[in-house]
Design a protein that fits this description.
- The chain has 183 residues and is an alpha/beta fold.
- It is built from six helices and nine strands, in the order βαββαβαβββββααα.
- The chain has helices at 13-25, 49-53, 66-69, 121-124, 131-150, 165-175; strands at residues 4-9, 31-36, 42-44, 63-65, 76-79, 85-87, 92-94, 99-101, 104-107.
- The longest helix has 20 residues, at 131-150.
- The N and C termini lie far apart (68 Å).
- The mean pLDDT is 88.
Length: 183
């Protein structure tokens, strides 16, 4: 009897959550879960990015190694390859290296940041929907604080484009942001 293969495209919070739930519920069956990511072997916990930005939580609290997360789940195979195409009729996922058959498909590919068509945003803003984006904003804040030591009257103006969960959380963290007290 062949295994029933469940493919999950996207190893963000939703994809990982679904894979972990399926691993547990289907562990004594012949089901196999294939979890695809885009070439990164880590999952970023998006909800922690605002705190990473203003340095209120450690950087390690936002990233989790996918191989480590699934090391005990024998029915989950982590495939660190980007899915380039899907043949829905034949139920095949295609990557640069291999083609993978699936019986069931779950697409959990996340979202893409938007500039909402506002002129200048794409050229001048830091995209905040990734770990690297959070670190870039953090570096900008640290640079401002360093410059403010020489020019205490210098002010900082920040514009957040977008009022989704990440934007709202970032604004809340920035509202509490203040320069560290001198030691």
């Amino acid at each position: 009897m062949s295994k029933n293969t469940i493919a999950i495209v996207g190893a963000g919070l939703s994809g990982v959550y679904i894979a972990k739930r399926l691993a547990r519920k289907l562990r004594r069956t012949d089901h196999q879960v294939l979890l695809f990511n885009d070439g990164s072997n880590t999952m970023t916990l998006q909800s922690v990015l605002p705190q990473i930005t203003v340095n209120t939580v450690p950087v390690e609290s936002a990233r989790y190694g996918l191989y480590q997360l699934f090391k005990n789940d024998k029915n989950v195979t982590f495939i660190n390859q980007r899915v380039d195409d899907i043949n829905f009729n034949k139920r095949i996922l295609m990557t640069k290296k291999n083609d993978y058959h699936y019986d069931y498909l779950i697409l959990a590919t996340g979202s893409i940041g938007s500039d909402f068509g506002i002129p200048g945003v794409a050229e001048h803003a830091t995209l905040f929907n990734s770990f690297d984006g959070a670190l870039a904003v953090r570096a900008d804040l640290e640079e401002f604080l360093e410059q403010q030591k020489n020019n205490p009257e210098q002010s900082l103006n920040i514009t957040v484009v977008g009022g989704g969960p990440s934007g709202v959380e970032l604004m809340a963290e920035l509202a509490n942001f203040k320069k560290p007290s001198p030691n």
